[in-house]
Amino acid sequence: MALHFLMLLLVVSVVAAEEEPFIGVNIGTDLSDMPHPTQVVALLKAQKIQHVRLFDADQAMLIALAKTGIEVVVTVPNDELLAIGQSNSTAANWVSHNVVAHYPATNITAICVGSEVLTTLPNAAKVLVNAIKYIHSALVASNLDRQVKVSTPLSSSIILDSFPPSQAFFNRSLNSVLVPMLDFLQSSGSYLMLNVYPYYDYMQSNGVIPLDYALFKPLPPNKEAVDSNTLLHYTNVFDAMVDAAYFAMAFLNYTNIPVVVTESGWPSKGDSNEPDATVDNANTYNSNLIKHVLNKTGTPKHPGIAVSTYMYELYNEDTKAGPLSEKNWGLFDSNGEPIYILRLTGSGATLANDTSNSTFCIAKDGADPKMLQAALDWACGPGKVECSLLLQGQPCYEPDNVIAHANYAFDSYYHKMGKTPDSCDFNGVATISSTDPSHGSCIFPGR
Fold it and tell me: Could you give the residue numbers annotated as active site?
């Protein structure tokens, strides 16, 4: 699977924890009804997401992210890699158009040069390091190389013999690319971008990897995996894969390159041959991942040095090719409604959509009925709210009055726009409430 996120602050021999670990989100765009960039940003703000990774450098998205403070990772798409890897001037033009033109208003912090190139686009592997260096040279020329890191997300599948982690090494057939790449990452102060998918490790293990071990569920000591060489105990696949990357780098004599996880997640739905792609498992994995990163647990090899991670992904991508699971990695649907409510009590504000502080947008007491009707008509028209539940015979038709119908339309729009205060105004006839206006079988979006 080629895609998704991150930036971190860990050093290995020299531990310089200058930044707090963070959770970011990948934003894919393979949706039949992709939200407008302003709606995407409204959702990010409402969820207090401060780090995102884009799979391209979409201009409208970069403009919408301007002046938000959100840290943005942009990507050189794989189909542009060959041209950039063969031409310094093409790389310079890319950086000028997609970074310099937007910085610093848009807080671009890193560039992914391709994604999982070594495993998905082997014919471009020979120019990958050149592409990375050309992009970096363009940043140097613009005096942005200190602000914007350059790296390339790698699939964890290039790490062989990954358990026990201390025996892990990179696929040696890739060393001609990996060694100069690691040289660059070390000399430029960048980090190794790694995509870590315990879901696939679990699926491909034929029962060797227990589900609880993949999901970060608490394990009794006798169920923990032990590295017989280091005697380190592993309680989850994620930490074992990250440490395998550290050991694989150390095997090549690189011991101070931080790891950032650019993609990790769990699908909420799958085909019949993917019985563990469920809402409950996706919620468990992602909730535990967030807590694990933000609690600064670190890994057994580097305790206390947390690995910042970009979750895969913000939206379900219904037009993505492949099995059903490919379409169902999202935390939200295209309307900004959560696929499930993350269990994050006590782990900070990021993605804390666990409804203990749910808010709703409803009509103000005493609002002018004509103003309400006009606002209702706007919400169900230009506002693009799905108002079919208000039709006769549908769950929210009764009570058939303008206040009840406006409540539903206002609240739907408010949640669609990421619960920003200005999305609950409607010319002064709406207000934010903590009281759930759902009734009977008419369930409001904020429930």
Answer: 116, 263
